[in-house]
Amino acid sequence: MSDRREPQSQGQEPPDRTDDLSEAFTYNGGRVDPGESANIRYGISETYLGDPVRIPVTVINGAHPGPTVFLSAAAHGDELNGIEVVREVAHDWAHEELHGTLVCLPVLNVPGFLAQQRYLPIYDRDLNRSFPGREGSTSAKRMAHQIFTNFIEPCDIGIDFHTSTRGRTNMLHVRANMDHPPVARLANAFSSNIIIASEGPRGTLRREATDAAIPTITIEMGEAHRFQRELIDRALTGVASVLAEYRLHPDSSVHWPGWRTVIDDRDEKTWLRADVGGIVDMKYTSGDLVHEGDVICTITNPFKEEEEVETVEAPFTGLIVGILENPVVYPGNPLCHLVGLAEDTLLALERELAPADPPSNGFL
Ligand SMILES: [Zn+2]
Description:
The protein is an alpha+beta fold. It has helices spanning 81-92, 110-115, 139-152, 181-189, 205-211, 229-245, 343-353; strands at 25-27, 30-32, 37-46, 52-61, 64-73, 99-105, 157-162, 168-170, 173-176, 194-197, 216-220, 261-264, 271-273, 278-282, 289-290, 295-300, 310-313, 318-324, 328-329, 334-340. A hairpin with a 5-residue loop joins strand 3 (37-46) and strand 4 (52-61).
């Protein structure tokens, strides 16, 4: 791993708890003492049959004191990549030397996960617009409240894993409120090439946790309904880098991804949209570099009539961060999320994408 090359914001040293005694992690009805871990099924609601709806939680309380970090996934029930990230951190990593506590929540939206759909199947509510939740409110807000008070509020920082919406895919990237220095520190530590800067809508876990003084970022990675190994491995590198930055793994170093660009969600209108309805022949995938004027896709009618072919060209040179997977559009539907890059970032990316030098055969 290379050294971190980015200066960190001033005045935000890792929480120094080395003088404190390690503390138990407590939640309603239970505790996990230092040096112990627990697999918990915690009831957050009840089904139509009166059975408990229980979320899986693994709490790993390190033998050494340090910050408490939550890792959560599947707030949208069909977004699966993050589930594997959280499970591997919880169950495949060695935690003997952990300085702090990990709260691993691989499936937040259990009813959505069981139905393999994005929203809670109960009135199609979005769990990720229901935080921090409220007692005595809707079913979604009651579930959010149980999750938030028991497993989010005791934490110091958090990472919430998502994928693109069904029918689209995206490069692994961080979404974070970069105007908030403690969140920016966490976002920079995750080691992704792309950070999309935005506060996030109200009711999302990252916005509400951040507002409750628990700096939180979202990771977007790939598509719904899949385990995508390469993306999962990159996310695991990001988690390890965060644990190094906050000294939960004090002997590890923060990972620098080679190049990085921060996109401000407020001023970049870079989603290219279809102006006609039809069937899309996409020429690129997420993570590809396109040059101004390159044909990104064509949109045709069922008869492939040539005079009806709509050609969509790149309006500028940039990186495709997100792209349509389901090859059909109405006018106005998004085709791809194209992001312009600074010159030095572009050069670094071109170097990364360039094929390796061919082996010399002695004649060249
Ligand atoms: Zn999501």
